[in-house]
UniProtKB/TrEMBL annotation, chains A, B:
This is 3-isopropylmalate dehydrogenase. PANTHER family: D-MALATE DEHYDROGENASE [DECARBOXYLATING] (PTHR43275). It comes from Glycomyces algeriensis. Its cofactor is Mg(2+); Mn(2+). Residues 3-336 form the Isopropylmalate dehydrogenase-like domain. GO terms for molecular function: magnesium ion binding; NAD binding; oxidoreductase activity, acting on the CH-OH group of donors, NAD or NADP as acceptor. The keyword NAD applies. Pfam families: Iso_dh. Keywords: Manganese, Metal-binding, NAD, Oxidoreductase.
Amino acid sequence: MSRIAVIPGDGIGQEVIAEAQKVLAVALPGYESTEYDLGARLYNRTGEVLPESVLSELDEHDAILLGAIGDPSVPPGVLERGLLLKLRFEFDQYVNLRPSRLYPGAPTPLADVKPGDIDFVVVREGTEGLYTGAGGNLHTGSAAEIATEESLNTRYGTERVIRDAFERAKRRRGHLTLVHKTNVLVHAGGLWKRTFDEVAAEYPDITTEYQHVDAAAMFLVNRPHTFDVIVTDNLFGDILTDIAAAVTGGIGLAATGSINPDHTHPSTFEPVHGSAPDIAGQGIADPVAAISSTALLLEHLSRPDAAAAVNAAVERELAGRESGTKIRTGEVGDRVAADVAGQLS
Amino acid sequence: MSRIAVIPGDGIGQEVIAEAQKVLAVALPGYESTEYDLGARLYNRTGEVLPESVLSELDEHDAILLGAIGDPSVPPGVLERGLLLKLRFEFDQYVNLRPSRLYPGAPTPLADVKPGDIDFVVVREGTEGLYTGAGGNLHTGSAAEIATEESLNTRYGTERVIRDAFERAKRRRGHLTLVHKTNVLVHAGGLWKRTFDEVAAEYPDITTEYQHVDAAAMFLVNRPHTFDVIVTDNLFGDILTDIAAAVTGGIGLAATGSINPDHTHPSTFEPVHGSAPDIAGQGIADPVAAISSTALLLEHLSRPDAAAAVNAAVERELAGRESGTKIRTGEVGDRVAADVAGQLS
Ligand SMILES: CC(C)[C@H](C(=O)O)[C@@H](O)C(=O)O
Ligand SMILES: CC(C)[C@H](C(=O)O)[C@@H](O)C(=O)O
């Protein structure tokens, strides 16, 4: 039986995760879940974000389903670093996966794109680069202050995520784009490019391409249909995936997995959107991204049929929406769960 | 008399700079120019990119007008670092300025935007951050390889570019957005944010805003009209300005200035596009971006009327183009120069 740790979190996180669980109940029948009350409430009550004992308990699960964290009462960065990034590093979630598909009915800001035109995934490195916290400040607050940030990259870390990306490209349309900034970041760029080229030699059927991050950012806007799989470092991936979300209708619809492909620790699945305190508690949050994140979870737990059913149901849900109609959180979950149940019965 | 160093460079750089000079001849009558043959040819002949003696000569000028550099015969990065970045650092060009306007007739990939909707400038720091080259590799080529890149930031460097951005916001619509990634890059982000907030206190009439770089990248795509002036670090600016170019019709139309606002060394003005070897020598390159870069040059040399005339002429040139009509490089320059001449006579 699959054991899922559920972290609803703050604001609309609570509401959308309830719907994701409705869908999971039919897509992964009999799964066991444990709920963890992490986020702003715990922090404000105890000053702790992720107690060691909770981290150990989470580690006993097959996957983590997370809603959203963040509240104006908590200083910016505390929960993000203390929970989200902590999980990525502690659980060695080195593949940060963000699929981008333009669904029928999704409000893309682009002209001249049709549903189906945009369909790619970004494989973002999740445990290295500028996200390690290395760096510091000297003479803080004075006119002489200096601040450094250090990007740390290993052959070990780049190779494993690049291999993962090649495997994904093999299962998709067979095209992989490496994104970095080798013309300026020569040290890390050199490592990434050499590792990429070496691994590429083992995948003669995958066509490969290299793009500088600035060019890739532009191409995601003016020719997003040319991408299949993108592999890139932690910070570049952070930026590119938000552009990807923008062109496919906004972060409101995007889902992400922070994945440990070796299953040595649980992986985290979540909607990309935040806790949206302004609309929390009203039952009007769109649970589609949270529901989509269960598809990534099912994929990771080797349930491709269930994952496909969820994706198909989400696609129908979005296609069936009339523009301007108000979302009712609970109704969306009911509709998608019923659709999934129908497909899997 | 203004002394302009002209570096046509490679490929279409030669062709578009000739047109920019036609326009400059009428917008800055009697300017003196010295041409420098830098780029792929010099490098392939001598192995040198920017000899010290040439650097000293360039330093004697009021501004540098650059076409484009780069050729398949030169290893990637050599000319970019050896010439473009070298000039930015040696000449202390700490304001990298990239105006983004959607002109009538420009081919934006966005739906639902009208000319005039998008009009902002990015003030990108040009002499610090991840562009200093700090970092290295260890155990290169082995399974144990590590690579680092260090972002170096000073109070001195952040404050001066932030002040410049506030001044520009004052001359525009009075809104300034700081972009960084303070929730992850806490060291550099802290310095940028504190410096920004301190300087902001001196500009009570400027409304300010902070955005994480991933959010800003998204907003540039789905609500670009909300920006007036953006100030950000070197690498974030590199990425954001390419998104900005994408939404305003592509890098083919964008111009940039690498500016030393204190005039202690010359500033460089150039089109954002590359040398496009595939279309070089055919007289079909669009010189509009090179011409727009002369407007930035004129602005920097305190010729606001001439700069406005060039911008107005470029706007008319683009508006007058029928979609699908082939560009003739020389004709565009002639038309714009004549228009500028008419305005200034
Ligand atoms: C919240 C933040 C720390 C996080 C990141 O930068 O990785 C987020 O932007 C993301 O993409 O998951
Ligand atoms: C060519 C390259 C070094 C340069 C940069 O990264 O700054 C370019 O992308 C730019 O934006 O001027």
